[in-house]
Design the sequence.
């Protein structure tokens, strides 16, 4: 067995423990940030160095080490890096538990990396719980009323989702006798359609898996937790949740549905249709309910539900495309990368602004164009990217994902999706409007410190690069779209 | 590969915008000078290209000054620029008005840095639409234009500016949402994003996978919103009226021409079958636009709103010319786009001047200004007469070609009947133009306007340049029609000439 293929994960685990221990001894808490960041850089660097090697499976086929997993590991390391940079100001306000905060971020990143690599229902569940439990704690980190409520809500609903997921896994296992994804696929391919229809438990198991994963990616109707949790959680954690946790959910779905249920076609067409339906309701509900929101975190919460809808257009494509086509996967990967940069950028700007004005109300962002021109400009760029307008990354991501959908006869879904983008322009531009057109309540400048600025700059740079010359990342996504075949 | 003229024309305004963003906000004069330089050089280059443009008959349908580089491998998208006879004059028009609006905006003192940066970005995106030969690039440029427009209207506009700005954005996005679906379908069915390749290969492939008519309509909606075609026109009066003068000029002058350009190049040029099949419906909508637009114009009292509604009527002629589908009518439509750009640009500039100098925009309150502001009156009258199609102005030639071409069209049944109905519009146009001139400038002199300022030196300069171009095209239209023909001939050839 090749333990060196597991180095990124080991690094993160070691650094997570290191940060907690360090917290006991050092007075200068800035060290914690530096140590966590270097842990992520090492883990990311090792991952990048493994890019291009032959894919393989380790731990008795429990985990896959393929370019798909590596792509996500890099993505998660990058997201965690930016989130930690952006949280420095926010967390420095805390008297205690700073070490735990950074350690929990590292641990949940570790969990997500495992989620992307998992190739077995058992390792899948462990990875999912490692991520979730870290996140439950992070959401409740402020320990005020809203944060605690959010944490409890997230915990309870998350537990139910886990239970549904476990039940679905049990049904799949009961029907196929396997937990390893490749083995499940072989078992299903040996069955005939009549065979399955005679005992629909397998299909029910798959539907339950979709429900369990749907909670992670915040798809309607499993989105109930989103607004409250997003509003109550510390804003950096909200950013982390909205980006990393969602990406990890999509990694799981892609892995499981492609590897285990990708063939035969009658099966993939069916779950493709389910995802298409979920995409439609997620886009519509996310966008329509976002319109009346007055709190920017809640608005971004609903917007993330809508974005999950666009991403599920890609999942529907995956179901409808022939099994040999990788267009469905690679468009989702590209969309996730661009969404991660965009949404993180938006949240970091919101963190920087609301940290100083102590408010998350959109009305209080009035006049930010004068009070904090650079932050307002960055937020404007990210919001434009979320609408899906050029020259930002969001446009290329949508173009790419929709072009794949049209190629698989999903024009109707694409038309619904692009019309939804029009609806979304209304509420995103409302924030732009108050920032640039409204008269500020006070003329006082809103200062921001170095680390969040750097993180914001990196995000905006990424958004523009992916929007103007997307070729390189598309190429990476294309390579990563080749999942390991068992 | 030669020198990349088009790239320079395309990106110089954007570079200017970035430089302006870096200038100190207090240095008002420097900002304006930089803006003038970075729109002036593209204008000079565009004139050079226009002069150097190969007008021989062998150049019909040939793309000139072409640049092509691979942009995104995965999507088979290219950075592909080039102009043919159809787009060359429109590029020239954009550069021309782009430079003039900087002069027109010389008196903008509210946040000038942002204003000129957005204005220059807007110019880049419009030029981009006319020079792009790759559908993805075309769409990117088409969409980018929305953002500067939103800020320009909502910050520097007047009246219900925020409402008008968001209405403009949502209408445009609504149209381009369908257009995006259309482009994706076209990309999927032909496997190419190159406009040139798709036009040359024809759509044999398309029919087998997806009905060509469906793609035609998806694309058409996007262009129809922009043109605007009745019943998608309601954004236009609001946006034109509430926009600052410079933006009204750009909006009426070149922005709505993107719709007509797209219709000719994509809808008619690539889908001759559906275009011919649905030509009658579209011509009827054009007639409604002409008559309804003119009738509503007659009832307006706000000077800018009046010019705005007249655009709907004039764009109806463009639509009629396009879907009469003959060589002459298409050339007329293209010329009408150019001519309307200059005439309405001038009208909006003059209206802006009246509003700025006299501070009154209600026609009923104006009157007798001929004594107090003779120069504005004279130029306004020339522009008005050009708009109603007086001979020796460009308006006359363009409308004449459209009517002539439509009347003789063999591609569309009952074309003569439609043309005769359209001519009623001319009578209405004469009615509202003369009424407007009379209300504002003639009649008894009003005491309260004594001492208002007439046009100053800079204003005289841009007025006379615009008047000169209107006259030049009116007297010697071949300077443009020779070029337009080269672009139109291959398209008209699809319908038997």
Sequence:
């Amino acid at each position: 067995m090749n333990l060196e293929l597991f180095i990124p994960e080991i690094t993160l685990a070691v650094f997570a423990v290191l940060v907690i221990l360090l917290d006991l001894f050092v007075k200068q808490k800035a060290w914690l940030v530096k140590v966590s960041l270097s842990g992520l850089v090492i883990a990311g660097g090792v991952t990048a160095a493994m890019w291009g090697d032959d894919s393989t499976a380790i731990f008795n086929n429990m985990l896959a080490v393929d370019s798909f997993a590596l792509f996500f590991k890099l993505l998660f390391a990058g997201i965690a890096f930016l989130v930690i940079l952006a949280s420095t100001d926010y967390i420095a306000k805390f008297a205690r538990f700073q070490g735990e905060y950074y350690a929990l971020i590292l641990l949940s990143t570790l969990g997500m990396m495992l989620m992307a690599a998992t190739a077995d229902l058992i390792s899948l569940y462990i990875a999912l719980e490692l991520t979730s439990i870290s996140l439950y704690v992070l959401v409740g980190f402020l320990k005020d009323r809203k944060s605690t409520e959010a944490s409890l809500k997230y915990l309870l609903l998350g537990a139910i989702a886990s239970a549904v997921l476990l039940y679905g896994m049990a049904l799949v296992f009961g029907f196929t006798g396997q937990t390893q994804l490749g083995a499940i696929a072989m078992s299903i391919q040996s069955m005939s359609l009549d065979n399955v229809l005679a005992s629909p438990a397998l299909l029910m198991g798959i539907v339950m898996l979709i429900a369990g994963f749907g909670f992670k990616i915040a798809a309607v109707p499993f989105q109930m937790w989103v607004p409250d949790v997003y509003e109550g959680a510390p804003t950096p954690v909200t950013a982390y949740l909205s980006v990393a946790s969602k990406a990890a959910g999509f990694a799981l779905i892609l892995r499981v549905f492609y590897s285990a249920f990708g063939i035969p076609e009658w099966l993939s067409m069916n779950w493709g249709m389910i995802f298409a339906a979920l995409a439609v309701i997620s886009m519509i509900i996310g966008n329509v309910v976002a319109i009346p929101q007055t709190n920017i975190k809640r608005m971004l919460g609903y917007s993330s539900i809508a974005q999950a809808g666009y991403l599920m257009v890609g999942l529907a494509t995956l179901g409808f495309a022939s099994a040999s086509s990788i267009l469905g996967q690679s468009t989702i990967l590209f969309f996730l990368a661009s969404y991660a940069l965009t949404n993180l950028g938006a949240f970091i700007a919101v963190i920087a602004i609301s940290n100083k004005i102590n408010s998350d109300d959109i009305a209080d962002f009035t006049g930010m164009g004068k009070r904090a021109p650079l932050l307002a400009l960055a937020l404007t760029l990210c919001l434009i990217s979320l609408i899906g307008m050029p020259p930002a990354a969001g446009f290329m991501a949508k173009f790419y994902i929709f072009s794949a959908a049209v190629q698989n006869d999903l024009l109707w879904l694409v038309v619904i999706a692009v019309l939804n983008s029009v609806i979304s322009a209304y509420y995103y531009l409302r924030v732009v409007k108050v920032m640039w057109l409204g008269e500020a309540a006070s003329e006082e400048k809103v200062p921001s410190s170095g680390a969040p600025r750097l993180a914001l700059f990196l995000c905006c740079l990424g958004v523009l690069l992916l929007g103007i010359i997307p070729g390189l990342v598309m190429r990476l996504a294309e390579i990563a779209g080749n999942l390991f075949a068992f | 590969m030669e020198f990349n003229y088009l790239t320079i024309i395309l990106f110089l305004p954007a570079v200017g915008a970035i430089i302006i963003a870096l200038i100190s906000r207090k240095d008002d004069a420097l900002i304006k000078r930089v803006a003038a330089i970075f729109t002036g050089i593209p204008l000079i280059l565009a004139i050079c290209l226009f002069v150097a443009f190969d007008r021989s008959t062998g150049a019909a349908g040939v793309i000139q000054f072409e640049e092509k580089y691979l942009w995104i491998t995965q999507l088979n998208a290219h950075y592909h620029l080039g102009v043919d006879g159809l787009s060359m004059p429109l590029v020239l028009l954009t550069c021309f008005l782009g430079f003039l609006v900087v002069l027109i905006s010389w008196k903008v003192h509210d946040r000038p840095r942002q204003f000129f940066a957005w204005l220059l970005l807007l110019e880049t995106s419009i030029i981009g639409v006319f020079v792009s030969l790759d559908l993805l690039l075309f769409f990117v440029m088409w969409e980018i234009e929305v953002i500067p427009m939103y800020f320009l209207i909502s910050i520097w506009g007047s009246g219900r500016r925020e409402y008008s700005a968001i209405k403009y954005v949502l209408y445009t996005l609504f149209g381009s949402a369908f257009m995006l679906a259309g482009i994706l379908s076209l990309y999927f069915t032909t496997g190419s994003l190159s406009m040139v390749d798709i036009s040359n290969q024809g759509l044999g492939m398309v029919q087998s996978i997806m009905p060509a008519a469906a793609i035609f309509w998806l694309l058409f909606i996007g262009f129809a919103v922009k043109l605007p075609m009745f019943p998608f026109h309601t954004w236009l009066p609001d946006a034109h009226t509430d926009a600052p003068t410079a933006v009204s000029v750009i909006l009426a002058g070149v922005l709505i021409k993107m719709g007509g350009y797209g219709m000719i190049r994509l809808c008619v040029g690539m889908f001759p079958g559906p275009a011919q099949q649905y030509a009658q419906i579209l011509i009827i909508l054009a007639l409604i636009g002409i008559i309804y637009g003119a009738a509503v114009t007659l009832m307006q009292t706000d000077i800018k709103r009046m010019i705005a509604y007249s655009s709907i009527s004039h764009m109806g002629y463009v639509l009629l010319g396009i879907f009469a589908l003959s060589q002459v009518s298409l050339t007329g439509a293209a010329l009408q786009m150019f001519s309307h750009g200059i005439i309405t640009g001038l009208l909006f500039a003059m209206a802006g001047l009246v509003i700025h100098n006299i501070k009154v925009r209600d026609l009923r309150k104006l009157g007798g200004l001929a004594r107090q502001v003779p120069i504005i009156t004279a130029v306004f009258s020339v522009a008005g007469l050009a708009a109603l199609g007086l001979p020796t102005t460009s308006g006359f030639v363009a409308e004449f070609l459209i009517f002539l071409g439509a009347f003789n069209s063999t591609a569309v049944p009952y074309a003569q009947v439609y043309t005769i109905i359209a001519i009623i519009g001319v009578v209405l146009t004469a009615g509202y133009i003369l009424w407007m001139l009379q209300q504002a400038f003639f009649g008894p002199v009003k005491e309260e306007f004594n001492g208002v300022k007439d046009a100053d030196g800079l204003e005289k300069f841009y007025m006379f340049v615009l008047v000169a171009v209107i006259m030049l095209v009116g007297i010697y239209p071949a300077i443009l029609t020779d070029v337009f023909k080269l672009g139109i001939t291959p398209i008209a050839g699809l319908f038997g000439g």
Notes: Chain A has one domain: 3-480.
